[in-house]
Each structure stands twice: as structure tokens, then as C-alpha cells.
Amino acid sequence: MLSPALAGNALRTNQFTATTASDAALWQKQARQKLFELMMGGAKPARLPLDAKILQRIESPTNRYVMEQLSLQSLPDRRVHAWLAVPKQPTGKVGGVLALHGHGGTGSQVVRGESLYGYGRALAEMAYLVISPDIGQHELQHTNWTLMGERTWDALRCLDYLETRPEVDLARLAVAGLSLGGETTMYVAAMDERIQAACSSGWLTTIANMKKGHCPCWNFPGLEANFDFSDVFACIAPRLLVLEVGEKERAPGGFPVDIARGAFAEIRSAYRVFGAETNAILDVHPGGHVFHGELFWPPLQQKIGAARRAAVNPSAPDTEPPKPSLK
To answer: 248: burial class by Cβ within 10 Å (0-12, 13-18, 19+)?
Structure first.
């Protein structure tokens, strides 16, 4: 018999079980609505005017992009702090990528390619317009909301902002992230069909595994009763989804490969219903809890285009991120 962590959550009421594309699409619509209800105070929030404010602009002669620091209106009493990497002198419309940091990270680190977040700079060097919000809060601001709800909504508002930028082709949006960023990538791509490509790194797992040695900020009332994470990922089908996990990952507190493979089998079944199995890619790489990118860059460039190839190794340095508090 499989351990609970390997078997996943067999008790969820909204498990993906569709056998036809039409039934699957209906299930996805209902699942998205349920996620908004559970995570964001009972319903999908209203989109307010963004009231975008550019706080500073940093240009370096050695970079192919300009960095901008900005603030956006997320909710009536909440603003998002984010960083942009804007390509210099684009020859036409470019793809827009939401790049998300992990626990202890910042949007500034992502666009600069610092610490574990070389993928942010790699995306900027490919001439995408990259936006990276700060999503690491651990204090809940709104009654009946969840931490992951506030984080995800802030990220979705950044997609709204990308739509206002004249440089961005609205049909070419993607999202990528590591750890907490991989988790938020899952929700963003599942809940917003504007996303055409997603890479969730260092997150593919089960609810049972997350109960062992992980920061509890992932959890919220109603999640386990309705879904496991494979079901949330199933909302992304048939769009491009790359899932990365390192062979050095260990439990407790990590994301072991054997657990990831079991979750991926469920995700792949959803893609099979749409006749799109090749759009779900599992990258088991030799590293640890790092962003790899090797199986993401080629299909990303095919899906949303790229003016240049990446000149940055997104997984360097191969070091572990700081462990979040379990309090």
C-alpha cells in the first residue's frame, strides 16, 4: 500500500475525473470558481483601476533591459509592490512573463537574477517584459481570505498591468516560479486562462507531503476537502505546463521525486483527455530545490516567442533557499 504522501488525497470532492474534453472544460470552470471562493473571501474580487505608479527607473549600459519599480492597486485597501524588466528598443510586440520568487525572496532579486532567481534575468535577457511582485507576506490582511489568496490575487493584478503595457502582446503571457513561486504559478495558471505557458519549479507534490515539515502558509479551509494539487494543475490543461523537481529533494520539508511522479501521473491524465499529453512536461533534474529551465525554455519560446536565447544559467547557484518559519 502506498504511503499517504505518495497516494495523495483520495477524499477530495472536486477531484478531476472527466473523460471527455467538454466535461473537462466544464469541470475546470467550476473548479476555478471554487478556488476563488475558498481563497478570496467567497468570490472572485472586482478588478479596480490599477493606479500604477512608477517609483523608480534604473538603466544600465550593460543590461539589455531597463528595470522599473512600481506600485499597483490590488484591492481597495491593498497595493502590490513589483519590479519590471523592460526590454530596450524592442522591434515589435514582446511576450510578457510573470516571474515569482520563493520564501524569503523579492521581486527585485528576480529581475536582477540574484540568489536562486537567475531565471528572472534569463527571461529578461530573452527580451520578454518581466514583472515580479513581492508575494512573501505571512500576515493575513483580509477577513475570510487566505494568504495564498492574497498572494495569488496580487500576482493576477500584475497580469492586468501587463495588459496595459504597449510593448506586450496580450496573446503571449506566461508565468514561472520556484518554491512559493512555483506554488503561486500553479494557482495563477490554473485560475487565469490568459496564461499560455507555465513553469512550476520545486513545488510538484501532494497535500499529504506538505503537512510534513513545511511552512503552513500553503493551507486554507476547504482546500483538502475539495482538491489535491494535481487537481489544481489539471485546470491548466491543455496549455503548456512544465513541472520541475530535483533529485536531491528530500522529505520532510522537501519535494521528493517519487511523490512528484505520482502527482504528475494524475496531471497527465487531464492532459490526455484534451489530447495534449505532450504539453505536460516533467523535468526531473539532478539538482536540489532550484529552477532548472532546460525543458522550459524551448517550448516557452515556441509558444510565446523570444527575440534572444538566454545567456544566463537560471539554476546557478545551486544552493537551498532559506527555510520558512513553521510557526
So the answer is: middle
